[in-house]
Specification:
By secondary structure, this protein is mainly α. The chain has two domains: 1-58 and 66-189, no CATH class; 192-346. The protein is built from 13 helices and no strands. Helix 1 (7-39) runs antiparallel to helix 4 and helix 5 (127-150) packs antiparallel against helix 6. It starts with 6 loop residues before the first helix and ends with a helix.
């Protein structure tokens, strides 16, 4: 988004930004609910998908029994929950139902205001495609969620770690994109920041995302239950049984030892680079808000590392594991905020144009290109 001087347009952009932030907050809650659903093994309790008519749970005892009988035909009941009572089934059913219902509510919370803003003429040509992309991705996420559930209804009562991670990653992408668009509506003009710091922040946000995805494979393989000591794994810093699967690349997705080790390594690397980024930002001439973003990112990274270690050592208790998943989203949020605050402008500013044309730094010296130090440029901007 480019700079906006019209107060009425600014108010409209602010309203739409708050709408996007509210929907992003709903996605955040959705990720946490999804984590709890997975941790309590509730995700396979609903064995069909009714995207249009599935707004209501069973309303009569007969309806509940019919749904329970459906569930009994699938592997999870036969191999894990044989003998489960109807009351026990309701306990896992409600979590999955709430998870799906919340997804539908997110769709309504996005689509209804979007239509209103379109009819009012608030959505310009640059913003419209971004909002359409978010809407389409949200719909595809529902399809991907059912595709994930189906993988656990065939031969074994476990969803594919590939589909689980894809579903989780898609949620993070939708969330991140909504945040970025909202940030752009609230603060269209970037603040001066060194280019190297901008690149560092962007790379760090990408690394946080990759680390979170590796956590999806840990969850999908139940790898968190395999080695419950830190920093050692089975008494070794580098476990002996790494890369036990052939071909080599499959170890990062299918071998429990390698998957957990990779997640640990990525998490430690991410935390270390956050510290390096914080020190680099401390030396840079930043405004108050970008500096606050770097401080918040450092605190979140430290908290997330502690949550991860505690969850592992205590053998994945549900409240801590859910908090760790929520912490990953918080860390991604703050990494994106920091990257946004120190981003570079997409096009030259008038001040920069003037200095490059000889009106500022090299006035009176035609033909000489002005080489401007980043710190000087930051002060002038």
């Amino acid at each position: 988004m480019t700079g906006v001087s019209d107060p009425r347009t600014q108010r409209r952009h602010r309203a739409m930004a708050f709408w996007l932030l509210a929907v992003a907050a709903m996605v955040f809650v959705m990720v946490v609910i999804g984590g709890v659903t997975r941790l309590t093994h509730s995700g396979l309790s609903m064995v069909d998908w009714q995207p249009v008519t599935g707004w209501f749970p069973p309303l009569t005892e007969a309806a509940w029994r019919a749904v329970f009988e459906q569930y009994q035909q699938f592997p999870e009941y036969r191999e894990v929950n044989a003998g489960m009572s109807l009351a026990e089934f309701k306990g896992i059913f409600w979590l999955e139902f709430i998870h799906r219902l919340w997804g539908r509510l997110i769709g309504v919370a996005f689509a209804a205001p979007f239509i209103v803003f379109l009819l009012k003429g608030w959505v310009d040509r640059r913003l419209a495609p971004k909002l359409v992309v978010i809407f389409v991705l949200g719909g595809l996420q529902g399809v991907l969620g059912w595709y994930m559930v189906k993988s656990g209804l065939v031969d074994r009562p476990d969803v594919s770690q590939y589909r689980l991670t894809a579903h989780f990653g898609a949620a993070l992408l939708i969330y991140a994109y909504m945040l970025w668009v909202a940030f752009g509506l609230l603060a269209p003009e970037p603040r001066p920041a060194p280019r190297r710091l901008s690149r560092f922040a962007a790379a760090l946000a990408a690394l946080v995302f990759v680390t979170a995805l590796s956590g999806g494979f840990v969850a999908g393989l139940d790898a968190g239950y395999a080695y419950n000591t830190f920093p050692l794994m089975d008494g070794e810093l580098i476990p002996e049984h790494l890369f036990a699967v052939t071909p080599l690349y499959l170890n990062f997705f299918e071998d429990v030892t390698t998957v957990q080790f990779t997640h640990r390594l990525l998490a430690i690397t991410t935390a270390a680079l956050v510290v390096v980024f914080w020190f680099a930002a401390a030396k840079a001439p930043l405004a108050a808000r970008p500096r606050l973003a770097t401080h918040a990112l450092l605190v979140a990274a430290a908290a997330q590392v502690m949550l991860g270690i505690t969850t592992l050592v205590l053998i994945v208790p549900v409240p801590l594991a859910a908090a760790h998943q929520a912490g990953a989203v918080v860390l991604l949020t703050l990494a994106l905020w920091a990257a946004f605050e120190v981003r570079q402008p997409r096009r030259k500013t008038p001040a920069l144009e003037g200095m490059r044309s000889g009106d500022g730094v090299d006035a009176g010296k035609p033909g000489r290109s002005a080489k401007i130090d980043e710190s000087i440029l930051a002060r002038r901007l």
